[in-house]
Fold these 2 entries.
Entry 1:
Amino acid sequence: MLSSDIETEHALKLLSRRHFLQAMGATGAGIALGTYSRDLEAYAAAPLPPSDGILVVLLLGGGNDGMNTVVPIANGAYYDKRKSLALSANQTIGIGQGFGLHPKLTYLKTLYDQGHVALVQGVGYANPSLSHFDSMATWMRGQATGGSFSGWLGRWLDGAADTSPLHMLNIGVNVPLHLTGQVRSASSMAPWGMDLGGENDAPHNRLYGAIRSLSDASSGLGPWGDTITRVERDALDIGRDVVPVFASKLPDGDMARDMTLAARLINANLGVRVVSVSQDGYDTHSNQATEHDKLLGELDAGLRALYAGLEPRFANRTTVLVISEFGREPSANDSAGTDHGTTNTTMLIGPPVAGGMYGQAPSWSDLDDNDRFKSSLDFRSIYATVLDKVLGADHQQILGANYETLPLFSGALLEGVPAPPPIPVVPGRLLPVTPTRKLDTREGNGGPQAKFQANVEETVYVLGVGGVPAQDVTAVVMNVTVTDPTNAGFITVWPTGEAKPNASSLNFVPNQTVPNLVMSKVGANGRVSLAVSDGAANLIADIVGYFSKAGGSSLVPMTPIRLRDTRNGEGKVGPGKTIDVQMTGTAGLPASGVSAVVLNVTVNEPTNAGFVTVYPTGEAVPTASSLNFSAGLTVPNLVVAKLGPTGAVSFFNSDGSSHIIVDLLGWYDVSGSGPAASASSPQRLMDTRDTKTKVGADSTYELKVTGVAGVPDDAKAVVLNVTAVDPTETGFLTVYPAGRPLPNASNLNFTPGRTVPNQVIATVGDGGKIAIYNKRGTTHVICDLVGWYV
Amino acid sequence: MATPAVDVAHLLRRAGFGGTSAEINSFASQDLPQVVDHLLNDAGAPQPGKPAAVADPNKSEWEQFHALGNWWFDHMASAPMPLLEKATLFWHGHVTAAYKKVGQPDYLWRMHATQRANALGNIRTMMQKCAIEPAMLVYLDNAFSVDSSPNQNFARELLELFLLGVGNYGETEVESCAGAWSGHNLNEDTGQYEFRGNDHDSGNKTFMGITKNWDGPAIIDFLFDDPTQRMKVATFLSAKLWSFFAHPGPPANIVSDLANVMVAASFEMKPVLRALFLRPEFYSSQAKEGLVRSPVEFFVGIMRASGLRSTDAAPMQFSDGFGQEPFNPPNVSGWRPNKYWLSAGTSGQKASWAANLHYRLSDQSRDVFRDLVALPVPQAVDNALARVGITAASPRSKATVTDWLTAQRAAPYEDYFETFGLTTLVMLLPELQLA
């Protein structure tokens, strides 16, 4: 039976160790109230040493079907036994050697192509249990022989020198067995944030001091009583330290949210070494196809979110280990599902990983007595490798035996994973232009022929040339590429004349070429500023469009559609060659009225280093690049492309031969049905917490939004980030024009006690006001202005 | 002969959700067997009907599920027979079904009603009835299990989790049991169990060495009748009962004694619980200090003591964050004890709940501790502790609250913080987190 219970004797050990540590610290004895200070005191969260590997464990609960994850597309037995559940070769994403990835694993494929994914086949253990709990407990304990209820990572934590409760974290409210040691266990963190320790005023600090002092000496209530007070103290410490991690909105979807949180916790540099995230629902006894699609889609989004969120200095030493308690049976059952199996494929992902296929794929004919797969590799060999290579441990001490390790890690830090670019979300009116180069430090174009130096601001004049008018321009859209950087770091782009924000537009590691689409307000004198954070780097900036007060097109997002994939029989695009892709009248786009499209363009298996330029069909190839790449690497980039007169877009390949894949994400409507946008630096318009008066149930709060915070009196709508804080009921807010009827819609839904933000475009009503209606319970409301429409 | 008050208080916490000082003093004047018999006497216990909200077609499935959970919280907080509620909670975590898979709050209610009706009755009856509850048929995939390819989910868990435990059966038993249960399906149109003979495996199957045409219910009967198997069932369930009511890691001799009582009583619950509550080891410090409150016990203990009901205490809105949502266990094995409930995350959630409770009530000027601001510190502290059900505070907890309140009241212009701070601090005291 799976049990994460620490037996009482272990709780006692936990206590004696904790009390020892405490006695060594600064906390006084006795029951006098300690003053709770935000200064780091007895407990201190310290950064990780720069060479320490970081581990993210991803538990797929229920038993993932490894055969439909890494699909043996060359194996006829798979198709015989899986019948309608089998994925055809065409449905999968081919990775060679007779295997294809599940179609939802597109980002995993990107990482695989970059050499960052190890797929280990035939993993299991002797005499496998088919019980979820028994088998998961076996995986979680990770011991040579059964026995005590402690987990493999928990035992590693027992011996870790860093005693901070942040060293190992579970995203969730409980601590699962694999993170529970003999004398220590991981901390847990709810994905909606810590609710204790985050405030910093005199009465809160006095209260925290009282809660903290409960653990200064024994409660006299037994080992569990003392464990309780100690855990509450940990909650206070963690709550204090992770306040910034929850400062900005987390993405929707549990996996993307939890993995983003993992990335932020690691980025916070608080000494987080191991994070565990779980995803349940893989027990697909029935209706597997739909469920598995959904789960793997979420998993892929989670991986994307993790590496998009991690700063390069952490990304390049973060490994994800994906495990599940077992695989499924070879044959499908009669409920269009699969029953509990044995052997599975284990995945290790990340820049430190030496990518490729490992282990031995299980035979479909040589099955065990119950017609299930035979394992060829004990999962503890993988644990041993991870313990030794990522966590710097001696695996024999932790696992209780010596296991053969595998060459799953390259030994050196590999190239960082490029962060996928975010879709530009400013819903304004775009005027696309033929790409125009504004800056190329390799050529001395737009500035001196010299690399940008760390933290030196350089400015680029973006108005009046290359199709961009001298007037009425509010923001520009640029493709910014970094190349030949000497160090890991990031690029910041901001309006000239404003303080440099603490934000990054593009992250990179040494010697990497990384493009990204960047949108920036235009600053003083028609200029935009750029700076590199570390070392020196060449920068290239091409303008692809601008936002104008004088009118333009508005963005219509779409469900992504693949328009072209040269891997489908067409063959690679040769050097100096161009392919044209029709946009209007296809793939759901109207026949006219489209000024530009938003594309995700991917270059695959390029034979040489080079670039792709995306430009309006019918025009000459401009001196600009949409996507730069090195030989052999797969590189995606978001591209905003102006259409030619026939409604088509051309793709020019500069050097060598490359596959080109074109995905359509959205288009710009020339009718510009939305008014023009102005971007603003965020400003707080309202915070009911200041007056300690919540917005009541079934009541409306009116807020003047014009003539304040720089919003002009004739603004037609404002773009707000609205946040509900501490709502008492399940309910929603509706933001609508003051003086108009309450619409039957909600802008932001919440449940009690949660903090929920959302971006809202609110039409201005009577008296320059908007109305905020709260349906049920009471809630604090915060409104931050981020832009407006005139 | 009187019973020590500390033992009575312990018994009332474990056989229910805690008693008031008056109840403890009253029972302390009686013999322990008298007290236990009183607690076990469920004559006249109300047999509640389906909560109206579960049948309300204007409510979404999710709203019905929440209403069902809140109804049970309120019922646990007010029921005159708390041991019946506690025993129902035990079975709720042992023979499980989860909203996240089943949906259908009506099915969940029907299985709950079956468990409630048999929680202190006969275990075999309970198992036979639960096996064909629509909630169970859906949750463990027997709803459409047919003989050509029987689904093993229910068959496996019946043996592993409900009756025997790992190691007491083999894969042959799982396969045969799955065949025996094939055709015991759900009619989705009527929402009723239905036996479909055409889809039932009526061939010979081998179960525990006996080859014959096994049928599903006959397998359960066999496990309760066969002298060898029934002792294994009794041992497995006795260990779980001791772990739930006394402490995890039950000593073998106690398990063996309880199992013998169980078999002798033909699997009636009351004689087993009577023996359990009369064991001297039940009153050992190992037992008294051996369990952390589950979130359900935490809510209900405070609700019973304070008179708060779900409209104010909002247990269903927070139980997910606390890690224990009734009618929605994380998996078929139910919930784990002790360390499982203790983490920085759950501590933070408790603080968040306390703050929410405070705001919710103070908005309506009926804050749970509002009247205490007029009392001197010692009386305010005593009242606050008693109001949430702490009948015997540790000196350390009491001193901590007293010192904090004294300092809080000495701070100028911060009186607005007093009831909020008191609510948060008291709700985090270790006494409230221990079962």
Entry 2:
Amino acid sequence: MASGTKNKGGRASRGSVAATKPKPWGTIIAVVAVLALAVGVFGYAYIKISDSKKFLVTEENKDPSTQISDVVVKQYAGAQHVTPEQRVAYDQNPPFGGPHDAVWANCTGFVYPAAVRNESMVHSLEHGAIWITYNPDQVKDANLDKLKSKVEGVPYMMLSPYPNLDKPISLQAWGHQLKLENNPDDERIDQFIKSLRQNRYLTAESAGGSCDNPTFDTANPPPYVAEKPGPDAVTMDGKGAIEDSAENGQSPPMNPTTAPVPTSGAPASGAPSAAPTGAPPASQ
Amino acid sequence: MTARRGLVYGAVALAVLLIGAAIGMLITLSRIGPSAAPDAESVDVGFCHDMQVHHLQAITMAGIARDRDSDQFVRQIAFDIESAQLEQVGEMRGWLISWGQPGLPDPGAAHMGWMTTGGHGHTSGLPDAGAPGLMPGMASSAELARLRSLTGTEFDVFFLQLMLRHHQGGSAMAQDAAQHASQEYVRTLAKTMITSQGSEVRYMTALLTERGAAPLPG
């Protein structure tokens, strides 16, 4: 209302006022200051909110580690088990997926003083653990202590030396690896842990797999084997793993293509299934 | 004149709008995560994180005893502790996921910073941990290794001593959460822990006495 009358008056004496009235610098400065403050708050809030969510595992952000530079990602089939006597011809060094020993290594925040059998450690990765390895010739003293402090007593973490590791430090999660220089303060270590430890989207087993294992002797774990696995080793596609050898009895598993799904689902004993062999449980 | 006035009004309107949006952002900032869910700095989230870590070690120790102990009373209490705490860990982890929080504490996060009393260190009367940097009552790696190496009555006694200290060490966290957690169901769980672990403490003390031993010096 008041502005309406003002406007009328202003229109009447328009030309002279426009020419003589100085620019409202005070108002302009105030507006600019308010704008700057708002933009600052916006920016700060945006950075804080996105930081706290960046490495948080959610339905929309199933693998936050893709935002970390130098992480190697590979897809591996899970749940392929080998016996304590068998070895796996892994495609990576250290391995971070593939067939593994049926008995997983204890990963309850455990620091292994000596190198441990790869086949045992890979199984723990499948349960959602992070395995930190280091080259014992390069990572020592204070730097080693820093790595230990990230693991000792921390759930779903394990640490072990890895002879002849091609980088000083290497982090492993199921299907993920990050190799680093000799810098335990590298921020990517914590980002890797946050993104992948107990990440329920990694594999089916990572959603509830335990790190405790009563049958794994932590005081005397199966040792790391330096020699390359022989031609009888289980291959990365699972040929020769326990499931195959059980089906084929004593003979080597040479013909996996002739073992389609119905055969593998009905082992000789038939114990797991109450339904007659060959009858699909249609009623369920 | 009208043009300039319109400009000024427009700028003021924009500024007011931005201020409103900025306030909205600040409110979001103060509670990152879905609305009404406890935020990262809350007692609820801190308790569920730290108590999970604390519980997981008790589950480890109880699992060792449940598997290899020959004493049926010790085996029974170990199984009790293991199954109850596994269930509670699952509950806490489920809540954290539904609150949009990490399932475990962030790497390097300080222990017990969420507590309204006596966080960040020692509360008088609480047992120490087996090593510096661990939460009260927690066993060190060396103590766990020693536990795994023992047999017979020696094992029973050391297990009871470690578990007793573990229970007592976790009580301050449970007390704090029972009073200060924002969600009723979190307070209820914390109260449940206080009650059930309190009776287990008395029982384990009695078992120790029967075996001619005493709690670890605290």
